[in-house]
Automatic annotation (TrEMBL):
Name of the protein this chain belongs to: Beta-glucosidase
Species assigned in the record: Niallia circulans (Bacillus circulans)
A Pfam family: Apiosidase
Domain Apiosidase-like catalytic: 8-337
InterPro entries assigned: Apiosidase-like_cat_dom (IPR025277), GH (IPR017853)
Amino acid sequence: MIKLRVAENKKCLETTNGEKFFYLADTVWSAFTNAALEEWNDYLELRKTQGFNVLQINILQQWDASETELNMKPFEYKEDGSFDFSKRNEAYFERAEKMVQMAVEKGFVPALVLLWCNYVPETWGAEISSVNNMPLDVVEDYVTYVDGKFSKYNPIYLVSGDTDFPTELTITYYSLALNTIKKLSPQCLTTLHVRGRLMEIPDELLYSDNLDFYMFQSGHNIQFQSMSYQLAEEFSNKPVKRPSINSEPCYEQMGYSRNLYGRFTRFDVRKAAWQSLLSGAEAGITYGAHGIWSWHKKGKGFGLVGEAFDKPFDWRDAVKFEGAWDYAFAKSLFKLFSLHDLQPLDIVLKNTEEIRVASTAGLNKIAIYMPVNTTLKLNKLLENYEFTIIDLEQRRFAEADVSFKDNITVIGMHNFEADVVIIGEKKLGS
């Protein structure tokens, strides 16, 4: 069983024996309500072989999950169809615990959401659907129950789910949940999964000693994909230094939010990952496939609630999307080149922010992400470095064409048609 803590440099996570832990998560919000145990086992086997090590799951029913024949609900219904939060469905939570146990036995860290936004009054989710707002006087008992079920597996607790913090009441809910779970199980890491593009966290939470690391989401709005690096910069520069993770970049084959025509491609999700990782969010990245997060099955319904996305793929098809391997490859490259303790580096002589650069401590290694092929000029003389170009689509390696002039390093156009990462390693003895 993996036990995690925040690394001393406050930039990444590590195991309790000091080994660096690159957070590579898959998004399976709807697993507890929608996935049969046999399906769950098959899914875990594949993601394990790919190198994923974290699974993000909503403890309660996901409000925009796909329809399912399982009929597993966390609470009994009242006459109006809403949950009776005083009457838990023990069978639901026992089954959820079994699924967590299966995942942990295969080497995954569960990242469990306590309260998705629609369960908390006055959030943006509650404005859309307030039928299942949890009463405040139930929150502490609910979190205590969750602690008894899951904390033995050393999960990460995502105290909030896709939330904003518009009022004092909302902040009270999440503060209570955070402080309760941390008091009961201080060894479990905590974070907040916040609404897409949200940069501000209330002071009550930002300055809390009970919050361990940051999550942000660059999200599924096609107009704001630059958030992948803008949010990484923002959270890495918060007044309280903590590791940060893009926990919801655009999902592969997800329809654009607000029901706009179009879907995010393998390239789009890969770009979001690398731009985040090299802009201050080096602790890891979360992958998502449209069909996995809602655990969709062909022929089942998928409603236009929440952000209103186009229909998902069957989960059996979505689990095979190639982008999952791209994210696994990113994890492998971080390990291969020991890309730890990264600091964003502003040395690109090009009128674009799309190209992202970061360096390790002491400038021993430099990592560059280029989404589009071009001659690259860097405002730094890097004569004592060896450069390797890595084709991220075909996962091929090549030597770089590098020249120097007037204290400028010039890396010529490469021969690949896809986006690349360029790794510069300082030569021995230099």
